[in-house]
Amino acid sequence: SIAYSDKNVKICASHAGLTLGEDGATHQILEDIGLMKMLPGMTVINPCDFNQTKAATLAIAEHHGPVYLRFGRPKVANFTPADQTFEIGKAVMLNEGADVTIIATGHLVWPALQACAQLESEGISAEVINIHTIKPLDEKAVITSAKKTGCVVTAEEHQMAGGLGESVAHVLGTQNPAPLEMVAVKDSFGESGTPEELMKKYGLDVPDIVAAAKKVISRKSSR
Q1: Within-domain flag for 5
Q2: What domain count does the chain have?
Q3: CB 104 within 8 A of CB 199
Q4: CA separation for the pair 119, 148 (Å, rounded)
Q5: Structural domain includes residue 101
C-alpha cells in the first residue's frame, strides 16, 4: 500500500544480511533488495558505513516518495567522509583502475577496497565503485566503467537473484555486453555463526572478490 499510493514513507531496515550472525537464518535478511526493488516507485538504498548511512538518512528525509534504507547490525569500518553529500541514484568512485571494475554495495564496499589493494600488489589495476543506491541504479557509472575496463565484478551481502548483480547484469546485457562475475549468496538460507565465519563460508570475503576479479579478467582476455 505504501508503494501503490506513492506514500512519503521511509522504511529503515536494520540487521540485514548474513552478518546478523549467531541469530541464524530466521533473522537474516538476504532477499530484501530483490523484494523492494520490484515495487514500482520504491527507492532502494544500501549504504556502506556509519557516515554514509547518516548522510543517506538526511537525504531521504528531503526526498518525496517511498524509500527502503537498508543497513546491518555489526560495527564496520567507517571510511567515507563525515561531511559527504549524499545524492540518491549517484554512484561514488572510490578508486580508478584499468583492468577490472568492482561494483560493491553495503558491507561489501570495504572488502572490495581491500581486494583492490591486494590486486594492486599483484599488478592488477581495479576500479572500485560504491553503488549505495540500488534503485534507481546509476547506469551511466556502470556503463562508463565497463567500457573502460572491459569486465565487471559485483559484490553484495544478498542473494545473487534479485540483488545488485542482477541489476548490473541487466544494464550490461542491454547496453554494453561485458564479462560479469557476481559475489553474492548463491540461492541458500543463512545459518548461525560469527559474521566472519559466515562471510567466509558463503563466499563474501576479500579472497572471493579477488578470485572473481581474476576470473572475469581471464574471461575478458579469452574473448
Answers
A1: no
A2: 1
A3: no
A4: 17
A5: yes
The three cell numbers locating residue 102: 568492482
SS3 of 47-77: CCCHHHHHHHHHHHHHCCCCEEEECCCCCCC
- 2, part of any domain: no
- Which residue is it, cell 583492490? 116
User: Can you tell me whether residue 139 is helix, strand or coil?
Assistant: helix
d(CA 61, CA 48) in angstroms, rounded, equals: 18
Beta-carbon neighbour count of residue 151 at 10 Å?
22
Domain that holds residue 211: 10-221
- Give the CATH number of the domain where residue 24 resides: 3.40.50.920
Extract the C-alpha cell encoding 98. Answer: 584499468
Give dist(CA 154, CA 167) in Å, integer: 10
Which residues does 144 contact at the CB level (< 8 Å), separation at least 6?
none
| pTM for the predicted model, two decimal places | 0.95
| Spatial separation of the C-alpha atoms in residues 223 and 204, rounded to whole Å | 27
The grid coordinates of residue 32 equal 530484501
Residue 103 lies in a domain: yes
Q: CA-CA distance, 87 to 7, in Å (whole number)?
A: 21
Q: For 93-144, what is each residue's pLDDT tens digit?
A: 999 999 999 999 999 999 999 999 999 999 999 999 999 999 999 999 999 9
